[in-house]
Amino acid sequence: PTLKVKPRPDTGTGGWKQVACEVYGGVPRDTWLDRDLGVAGRLVMRDGSHVLVHVDRPVLRVPRLAIHLDRKVNEEGQKLNPQTQFTPIWGLGEPREGEFLEFVAAEAGVEAGDVRGFDLFTAACDRPAYLGGDGELFAAWRLDNLLSTHAGLAAIIAAESGPQVPVFVSFNYEEIGSMTYSAAQSPFLEHVLRRLAGEGAEDFARITAASRMMSADTGNALHPNYVDRHEPGHHPMPNGGAMIKVSANQRYATGAEEQAMFVEAAERAGVPW
């Protein structure tokens, strides 16, 4: 979850230069206030090539309203309008059309006039850190879902050769519902698997039926300040190991067979759960 730069980014008011952004994913809006933000993404050039860019230093900031002008914020909370109160500042003066793209293009080492399209996002500049008296806690943003991506890649690298073909896939756009052309609910994975199998429809159906799949994600441990938000008989404990998610309404696809597969794999690897 982050902020995506709009197609016409240059805006501003009252002597401030700002960048027009749109909320991407389930953003807890208050956590993005007064935060150092860089910008990252891709530029599509005139010749069709893609150029990646990452300005990894503070460039943008969504400024919080001073408490002197919002004296009841602690009692009533802060409701942020994403269209009018979630526009980062990045300079002083009157905004000029094309200025922000010129800045990003220069950072990428290309000419702004050759850019035909872009996907740009704000990127927080916070650095990961170990916390706690013994340094046993790890704090970082984007753990969901870099954690599962790392585990999946490590697993497929370590997998031994055998009759089955291990496949690891990391989808895009999970944060907005997985409904895009390259997300989990698209035909992308099926098309890739069919081309890899090189078999007819009947053979592919048999291969699929004989396969096992695990969807890996990051779960929420018990929050010490909001214990009442968790199911009282099933508290996910910190440092308790891998978590298996179960839903009677099949919000998660775990049934008895899937649970048995998970438990067997965890016990074989010596991993608590």
Give a description of the structure.
With 273 residues, this protein is of the alpha+beta class. Helix content is 23%, strand content 22%. It is built from six helices and eight strands. It has helices at 73-76, 99-108, 143-158, 188-197, 201-209, 256-269; strands spanning 2-13, 16-24, 37-45, 50-60, 89-92, 115-124, 129-131, 137-139. A three-stranded antiparallel sheet has the order 1-2-5, covered by helices on one side. Strand 1 and strand 2 form a beta hairpin. The longest helix has 16 residues, at 143-158. The protein is globular.
Mind summarizing the main beta sheet? 3 strands, antiparallel
- Can you tell me the residue ranges where pLDDT is under 50 for at least 5 consecutive residues? none
Could you tell me the number of beta strands? 8
Major sheet: arrangement of strands: 1-2-5
User: For the CA atoms, what is the radius of gyration?
Assistant: 23 Å
Instruction: Give the overall shape, derived from the CA principal axes.
Output: globular
- In round numbers, the mean pLDDT is 92
Residue share in β-strands = 15-25%
Helix content: 10-25%
SSE-based structural type? alpha+beta
Gap from first CA to last CA: 28 Å
How do the helices and strands follow one another from N- to C-terminus?
Answer: EEEEHEHEEEHHHH
Number of helices: 6
Could you provide a short overview of the structure?
The chain is an alpha+beta fold and 273 residues long. 23% of the residues lie in helices and 22% in strands. The mean pLDDT is 92.
